[in-house]
Specification:
Shape: globular
Strand order of the largest sheet: 1-2-3-5-4
Low-confidence stretches: 1-15, 21-31
Family: Belongs to the transglycosylase Slt family.
Number of helices: 17
Radius of gyration: 22 Å
Largest sheet: 5 strands, antiparallel
Domain Transglycosylase SLT: 225-347
CATH topology of the largest domain: Lysozyme
Distance between the termini: 54 Å
GO molecular function: peptidoglycan lytic transglycosylase activity
Number of strands: 5
Protein name: MEMBRANE-BOUND LYTIC MUREIN TRANSGLYCOSYLASE C
CATH class of the largest domain: Mainly Alpha
Mean pLDDT: 89
Structural class: alpha+beta
Strand content: 5-15%
Domain Murein transglycosylase-C N-terminal: 62-220
């Protein structure tokens, strides 16, 4: 099973044919992966224009295929770790298995903690060292990291944890020799053992992120955010706050929707809207595209502009509009408007008759889902913190 799982992921989860996969591989190896990915998306959209039924089929299959691949993957994990010890990637936690599913890394971007562990009792030190090095040197490469298999990772390009983790000498870890030396230090000074819920022994180390990891994470994508915020006339702090709330700046974030990447784009909804705006033709972004930070932020900011200028057009006060857009990013503009009235025209009238503070209170108390009610508060508070960061 472990040999066919990566192929299934590529062909089913991405909704791609073999020729599409070959094109994606070429895009990943190009000098400008984001531009190459956009070119591939346009090419795929032209195919959909000629065959709308293929688009409808692929959109319908996104969730089905995701659930299928995830179930196969979790089955492989549970065989090794047991059902209660099974972990998988989420919005704010990166999880990657290696070594025939016997080693894994969990990077919690919200807590700023990394746990690397192994159940390989015969070669525990060697396996754990290899897993630590892999975790520290994992590149920011959507084609090189397969979250739903135990496929090994090639150390090519800058590690995505660069600057977020420093070794025992307070040095940034960019190269294998330094990662190897730090792994030896951790194994000597921080090795721990626990008993898994199934009774087996687990050897692990905990690696803290730097104290300023939130600021480092946001700065890592600052130039991209600035570029697309300027293009779409958006507040940079708002975009950063949404990324913080959606993924805690985890570039490999994934939810069960499924939504992908920094701004948690759902391919068949927000992704489809943004895709049509960007490329002028119907289509949707693939998982690999959305794991690329620039492509993800491009799609996310495009969707924000659509919310501001189209779906919630008619809300007059800028602050009221922002509150509505934040909520709509999480739950959709339809749910936001229905919070005020089932009729769009009447809903807009009621919003415009209220102060921004009243609109905020209404959204915080009357939106249909608790998650969305809390989301508005989280984003507005995070936005204030990023405004502070932006000050010279």
């Amino acid at each position: 099973m472990r040999f066919i799982l990566p192929a299934l992921i590529l062909l089913f989860l991405l909704g791609c044919s073999l020729s599409d996969y070959q094109s994606i591989a070429r895009a990943a190896l190009s000098k400008d992966p984001s531009a190459a990915a956009s070119a591939l998306a346009r090419q795929k959209s032209l195919q959909y224009a000629k065959n709308p039924k293929a688009l409808a089929r692929d959109l319908e299959n996104i969730k089905i295929d995701f659930d299928k691949i995830r179930a196969l993957f979790l089955g492989e994990v549970s065989k090794k770790w047991g059902k209660e010890e099974t972990r998988s990637a989420s919005q704010k936690v990166y999880v990657k298995y290696t070594d025939h599913y016997k080693s894994r890394a969990e990077v919690d971007f919200e807590k700023g903690e990394i746990v690397v562990e192994t159940i390989d009792l015969e070669n525990s030190t060697q396996s754990l060292k290899k897993a630590i090095i892999t975790t520290l040197l994992t590149p920011q490469d959507p084609e090189g990291v397969d979250l739903y298999s135990d496929k090994e990772i090639k150390f090519e390009g800058t590690p995505y944890l660069a600057g977020l983790v420093k070794d025992h000498e307070e040095k940034v870890i960019l190269y294998e020799w330094r990662a190897s030396r730090y792994a030896d230090y951790l194994l000597k000074n921080s090795l721990k053992e626990r008993t898994a819920k199934g009774g087996q022994r687990v050897y692990y180390v905990m690696i803290p992120m730097t104290r300023d990891y939130v600021k480092v994470r946001s700065a890592k994508y600052g130039d991209i955010v600035k570029k697309y915020a300027k293009l779409h006339h958006l507040n940079e702090a708002l975009v950063l706050a949404i990324i913080q709330s959606e993924s805690s700046f985890n570039p490999y974030a994934v939810s069960q929707a499924p939504a992908y990447g920094l701004m948690q784009i759902v391919p068949q909804s927000a992704g489809r809207d943004a895709h049509k705006e960007i490329h002028g033709v119907d289509g949707f972004p693939t998982r690999s595209m959305l794991f690329d930070p620039e492509t993800n932020i491009r799609y996310g900011t495009t969707y924000l502009r659509i919310l501001f200028t189209r779906y919630l057009e008619g809300v007059k006060h800028p602050q009221s509009l922002e509150y509505c857009v934040i909520s709509a990013y999480n739950t959709g503009s339809g749910n936001v408007l229905r919070t005020f009235d089932g009729n769009r025209t009447k809903a807009l009238g009621k919003i415009n008759a209220q102060t921004p503070q009243e609109v905020y209170r209404k959204l915080r108390t009357s939106l249909p889902y608790e998650e969305t009610r809390n989301y508005l508060k989280k984003v507005t508070e995070a936005k204030r913190s990023f405004i502070v960061y932006e000050k010279p």
